Amino acid sequence: MVLAQLGGSISRALQQMSNATIIDEKVLNDCLNEITRALLQSDVQFKLVRDMQTNIKKIVNLDDLAAGHNKRKIIQQAVFNELCTILDPGKPAFTPKKGKPSVVMFVGLQGSGKTTTCTKYAYYHQKKGYKPALVCADTFRAGAFDQLKQNATKAKIPFYGSYTESDPVRIAVEGVERFKKENCDLIIVDTSGRHKQEAALFEEMRQVSESTKPDLVLFVMDSSIGQAAFDQAQAFKQSVPVGAVIVTKMDGHAKGGGALSAVAATKSPVIFIGTGEHMDEFEIFDVKPFVSRLLGMGDWSGFMDKIQEVVPMDQQPELLQKLSEGNFTLRIMYEQFQNILKMGPIGQVFSMLPGFSQELMPKGQEKESQTKIKRYMTMMDSMTNEGKFILHKHIQNLLTELDSSNPKIMNESRIIRIARGCGRPIRDVMDMLEEYKRLAKVWSKMKGLKIPKKGDMSAL
Ligand code: GDP
């Protein structure tokens, strides 16, 4: 994601500051200037950036800080807090409840990614146990219904629309009624998008909104417009009660930071971001975990959200227990690779884990990383036996030994034997073990992680 560039620049600035022997006015100014430059490049509004700089300087008064104070930590915390303030709309968004019908109406300009996002939103909630349904009230764009129908069919989500009816209000009302009768608890209405903000579009939106009485109006916008997102969001808010925003195409535009902060300035919460064209390239957006991830500090709540999605409920406590023990074995690595491959786009998952992203998956090399993980796994597993997944004998031995001792036992002859056993070059086995050692180090940092009670991930 392009935001990684912004995050990288800010983390580098903080790192350089941390590396300085003494933190004085100059070091602090250099650091803040670097951060300012990165934010402006991401199209964050100048006033917001200037205010941020002033606030940090006020908080971090180097002269007043006694010698014992950890200046680096105070500065880092201040940067973190200020970035959160820039992105915080100060208002929570409506969350649909399972089992109770909610109507969510999508609005936005044509090409913003609205129709794609409708399905992503439905699919995301379906995976969380909701019963979503899609209604195509976009009668303006030829092919809109076909697009929604195709996406909905792929995701196995019920849909409603018409090739012949030209009144969007009528379709919206009929669709909502039908799905309420069918006990769907998340009825999503896709409305027409136009090329620009036209009066007719707003009037149509207003009518659909009045007749379907949505619990939430979701405004979808393309991140490439950067800080111009402020005016666009305001214009939509004046016509319909926009309750939340989804910013799309965060994978391809350097202005993502600008768009996010501009939306926050309109006091509308951004609840999801789109990070690609595929159905699962869609992430929940929460300010603190997002900033934490931006600064390379990981995003535990996002990671836990993913774990909840793919790890069966009864296995979650065991995995969390292993995490909190900080004891990383090759067997855990194997299991985690399996999970990671199940979790969806690999970049998304790794970027939530501190330490995993930069080295195992360098930016822009997601495909290669995925291949690498698969190669490690091929080395570790091998055959299917009566439908049961079993580990290769050599690897199994290796796992058993590593489970009970430390990786130092991996002497040369053992590595040669493993390579021969799984038919891979020695270099590949060495490579895998190196990765293991590195991840074990990262994993050990998780020691002492607070384990939430079963089903309660919010504690993290
Ligand atoms: P609509 O006119 O607003 O309904 O827009 P569409 O849903 O048809 O999307 C327009 C284009 O943007 C399509 O090619 C989508 O695949 C693409 N798109 C939507 N969301 C994203 C995203 O998050 N990232 C990327 N890269 N492309 C997206």
Automatic annotation (TrEMBL):
Cell location: Cytoplasm; Endoplasmic reticulum
GO annotation terms (biological process): SRP-dependent cotranslational protein targeting to membrane, translocation
Regions crossing the membrane: none
Major place of residence: cytoplasm
Signal peptide: none
Swiss-Prot/TrEMBL keywords: Cytoplasm, Endoplasmic reticulum, GTP-binding, Hydrolase, Nucleotide-binding, Ribonucleoprotein, RNA-binding, Signal recognition particle
GO function terms (MF aspect): 7S RNA binding; endoplasmic reticulum signal peptide binding; GTP binding; GTPase activity
CC annotations in GO: cytosol; endoplasmic reticulum; signal recognition particle, endoplasmic reticulum targeting
UniProt-listed InterPro entries: AAA+_ATPase, P-loop_NTPase, Signal_recog_part_SRP54_M_sf, Signal_recog_particl_SRP54_hlx, Signal_recog_particle_SRP54_M, SRP/SRP_N, SRP54, SRP54_euk
A Pfam family that the UniProt record links to this protein: SRP54
Keyword Membrane: no
Domain SRP54-type proteins GTP-binding residue range list: 269-282
Reactions catalysed: GTP + H2O = GDP + phosphate + H(+)
Keyword NAD belongs to the record: no
Protein function: Component of the signal recognition particle (SRP) complex, a ribonucleoprotein complex that mediates the cotranslational targeting of secretory and membrane proteins to the endoplasmic reticulum (ER). As part of the SRP complex, associates with the SRP receptor (SR) component SRPRA to target secretory proteins to the endoplasmic reticulum membrane. Binds to the signal sequence of presecretory proteins when they emerge from the ribosomes. Displays basal GTPase activity, and stimulates reciprocal GTPase activation of the SR subunit SRPRA.
Assembly and binders: Component of a signal recognition particle (SRP) complex that consists of a 7SL RNA molecule of 300 nucleotides and six protein subunits: SRP72, SRP68, SRP54, SRP19, SRP14 and SRP9.
This protein's domain notes: The NG domain, also named G domain, is a special guanosine triphosphatase (GTPase) domain, which binds GTP and forms a guanosine 5'-triphosphate (GTP)-dependent complex with a homologous NG domain in the SRP receptor subunit SRPRA. The two NG domains undergo cooperative rearrangements upon their assembly, which culminate in the reciprocal activation of the GTPase activity of one another. SRP receptor compaction upon binding with cargo-loaded SRP and GTPase rearrangement drive SRP-mediated cotranslational protein translocation into the ER.
Protein family according to the UniProt entry: Belongs to the GTP-binding SRP family. SRP54 subfamily.
Protein name, as recorded: Signal recognition particle 54 kDa protein
